[in-house]
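Lab notebook page, bench 4
Experiment: in silico fold of construct C2
Operator: M.H.
Input chain length: 120 residues
Purpose: comparison with the prior construct
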Amino acid sequence: MATAIVGIVVLIALSFAVKGVLKHWRGESSCCSGGAITPPPKKKLDGAIVDTKIVDIEGMTCGNCKIRVEQALDTIDGAAAEVNLHRNHAVVKMTREVSNEEIRQALAGSGYTITGIHAK
């Protein structure tokens, strides 16, 4: 009898944990200093795409992190980013040659760590 009660309590706790993780991944939790933030419109690039780089990033945990990283990378002139949270990387499309150092500078001090930059 006691085993059944403990099992039920564990299942209830596990269901709350799974529900919290799913909210967190959708950006609906209060992580990253507050509630969900509204994503700005996607940055549009004028001109032909001349290069695409994949930026591997550690430290992103939710939809808010995704938005913050995209906003930081979008500050680079001639570049627009799209983050894949589950793969922990950003795809940066460029209308001009952008150095790896420019990409690193865009995320400097953001709390996220670039672990690699490579061509697509």
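Observations: The mean pLDDT is 87. The beta strands are 51-58, 79-84, 89-94, 113-119.
Next step: discuss at group meeting.
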